[in-house]
Amino acid sequence: MSAGSVAVVVADEIGFPSWDLYELSIPITVFGKPQPDLCDPWYDLRLCSTGRPDPADADFGLALRTPYGLEGLAGVGTVVVASVPDACVDEGAPLPAGLAEALRAAHARGARMVSLCTGAFALAEAGLLDGRRATAHWMHTAQLAARYPKVEVDDSVLYVDDGSVLTSAGMTAGLDLCLHLVRRDLGAHVANQLARRMVVPAHRTGGQAQFIDLAVPETDDAGLGPVLEWARGRLDRPLTVDDLARRAAMSPRTFYRRLQAATGTTPLQWLLNQRVARAQSLLESTDLPVEKVGELSGLGTANNLRHHFLKQVGVAPGDYRRSFFGSGPVRESSAARMSEGSARTE
């Protein structure tokens, strides 16, 4: 299994804002730090600058010099534009010279194109978002939509996976998208282990809200953790909002509101996300038939499993298993997994 190659564009010759270092550090951390126990070799990372800035012209005297220029985009499997200079967003200044052409050429060669935050403006300028659904930080999506009317801008989601072109909102949503790419490339187990090392949630689906009106509930939500763990251990059983609320000693309405406030998703969608993640783990680590995977993950029939799996993961369960079987921690036997349910206690 190969992780592939990633080029991260550093668009900085007119001064790299220091606050954009956050978005830039995300792909460098995810794709640049070797993880030999998870996949060896790890990603081959290149930092590709659009120019050579004068530190005196940059915010706080900060400038970045990289081993590659835009020629480094040639031959890589994934190109990430973490951001573009503020002037390109706020004032409509041109992109750094040659950037749009280099992005178009990389896409034409078959590279997967990715933007984080304002990097979407570069993909849009290159014409790569025309006719596609895309997102950016919610503070900039109105400008993106007005400037590029051929782009279907969604200002509410964390990220959009349109196959060969992916876009994310700003800040931590960029990390969600990068972990999503690792999940696509190397499987759920590798992505989950990497997220654990980074001390971040293993999987936030792209459709979750960019921001939550009540990001921190007014009341103490210490009671949510135990009930969610309880639910994860019983995904093969029928579970309703009433069941979860009863376990949390809340009314269904209160539980619904507090879970949505804490996670940005509804209880039923949270359950579906957990069940798909459970199916991924079973497909990676067991040889169970698809019918049994559907049963143990709580997705029911094989057809129902295929429907939700294809919708969320983007590939059929059988194709996913062919790509990632053995990437999980243990290759469990069918007999062992089939006996799990009967051995579990309340």
TrEMBL record:
Pfam (any one): DJ-1_PfpI
Give every HTH araC/xylS-type domain span.
225-323
Q: Which residues form a coiled coil?
A: none
The segments labelled Disordered in the record are 326-346
The highest taxon in the source lineage is Bacteria
Instruction: List, alphabetically, the PROSITE patterns matched.
Output: HTH_ARAC_FAMILY_1 (PS00041), HTH_ARAC_FAMILY_2 (PS01124)
Record keywords, A-Z = DNA-binding, Transcription, Transcription regulation
InterPro entries given for it? Answer: Class_I_gatase-like, DJ-1/PfpI, Homeodomain-like_sf, HTH_AraC, HTH_AraC-typ_CS, INH-QAR
* PANTHER family attached to this UniProt entry: ARAC-FAMILY TRANSCRIPTIONAL REGULATOR, HTH-TYPE TRANSCRIPTIONAL REGULATOR RV1931C
Q: In its UniProt entry, what is this protein called? A: AraC family transcriptional regulator
What organism is the protein native to?
Answer: Streptomyces alfalfae
